[in-house]
Amino acid sequence: MHTITVIDLKKHLDKHLKDVIDNSTPLLVRTDDTNDVVILSIKDYDALVETIKISTNTQLIRKIKRGDAQINATISSNTSN
What's the rounded Cα separation, in Å, for the pair 23 and 38? Predict the structure, then answer.
């Protein structure tokens, strides 16, 4: 993650936003007080929100673990033959 100041963001806004979007690189903007800001592309933000939704859904996590166990069991039985 790159870190810049608000002044630098103002001077080079187009460049910084292009970098965030093109390279999926979050940008930490330091302010004069302690209210720093992170800028993300909408694609990265949506992925982050989706990950949070999935990781907090206990039923879905159980299904994923069960499916993963089934896959591992299938792979193990196929490699032992």
Answer: 15
Answer yes or no: are the C-beta atoms of 37 and 29 closer than 8 Å. Answer: yes
Written as one letter, the residue type at 36 is D
Report which DSSP code applies to 33: S
8 Å CB contact between 3 and 26 = no
Compute the distance between CA of residue 40 and CA of residue 50 in angstroms, rounded to an integer: 14
Query: Are residues 21 and 41 in contact, defined by beta-carbon separation less than 8 angstroms?
Result: yes
CA distance between the termini of the chain? 47
* H runs (alpha helix) in 1-81: 6-11, 13-23, 42-55, 58-79
pTM: 0.70
81 pLDDT exceeds 80?
A: no
